[in-house]
Design a protein that fits this description.
Layout (H helix, E strand, L loop, with lengths): L2 H5 L4 E5 L4 H14 L3 E5 L5 H11 L4 E5 L4 H10 L4 E2 L5 H10 L3 E2 L1 E2 L2 H9 L4 E4 L7 H8 L7 E4 L8 H5 L7 E3 L5 H5 L3 H12 L9
Parallel strand pairs: 1-2, 1-9, 2-3, 4-5, 6-7, 7-8
Length: 212
């Protein structure tokens, strides 16, 4: 499965910052049951790698990946933990080379047209646009769709249930990333039924619908 196939599985990729390993499996099960099978576990906590391992082992319907991958060492660690794809907030030449060597489906991050062109030259056609909301949002993506017609995006950062349709309605957006489907307080309280409902609502969001 390449990164385009991963991105096509659902309109929203939950971006998860997991503080306790014990939360990983019930959280993943709730999200998958709600209709969001692609899960990004950010490597920002001590529990992240163990959480990734647990989901990979115990939630077979989840396509679990690692986010906030910054270098080759983290990429290797994530891959060995069972990550099926990776995501980065930006991308250096060294990280791009490591991604190519690893063979792992990957969503490298960009913020500018020049960064997008540099990665396109290396064969990356699906990119993360981050931080989307403060870097031009839907207007930026709309503006570059004509000059960069072969590049598609997964915007992440500042996206929520309310503004998600303005991103998903764009022809160069294949999916979005967001943390609103798994609020930290709801996860900490173990309110998995609430998270399943949030996931179900997010899974119903329409991609590439007419933009107002």
């Amino acid at each position: 499965m390449d990164i385009a196939a991963v991105a096509a599985l659902a309109p929203v990729i939950p971006v998860l910052t997991i503080e306790k390993t014990a939360d990983a499996v019930p959280l993943a099960r709730a999200l998958v049951k709600g209709g969001l099978p692609v899960l990004e576990i950010t490597l920002r906590t001590r529990a992240a790698i163990d959480a990734l391992k647990a989901i990979a082992a115990d939630v077979p319907d989840a396509v679990v990946g690692a986010g906030t991958v910054l270098n080759e060492a983290q990429l290797d660690q994530a891959q060995r933990a069972g990550a099926r794809f990776g995501v980065s907030p930006g991308c250096t030449p060294a990280l791009a080379l490591a991604i190519e060597k690893s063979g792992m489906p990957f969503l490298p991050g960009v913020q500018t047209v020049s960064e997008a062109l540099a990665l396109a030259e290396r064969g990356f056609r699906l990119l993360k646009f981050f931080p989307a909301d403060t870097s031009g949002g839907p207007a930026w993506l709309r503006a570059i769709s004509a000059p960069l017609p072969e590049i598609q995006f997964c915007p992440t950062g500042g996206i929520n249930q309310e503004n998600a349709p303005s991103y998903l309605g764009l022809p160069n957006v294949v999916c979005i990333g967001g943390s609103w489907v798994a609020p930290r307080a709801t996860v900490a309280a173990g309110r998995w039924a609430e998270i399943e409902k949030l996931a179900a609502a997010a899974a119903q969001l329409k991609r590439n619908s007419p933009h107002p």
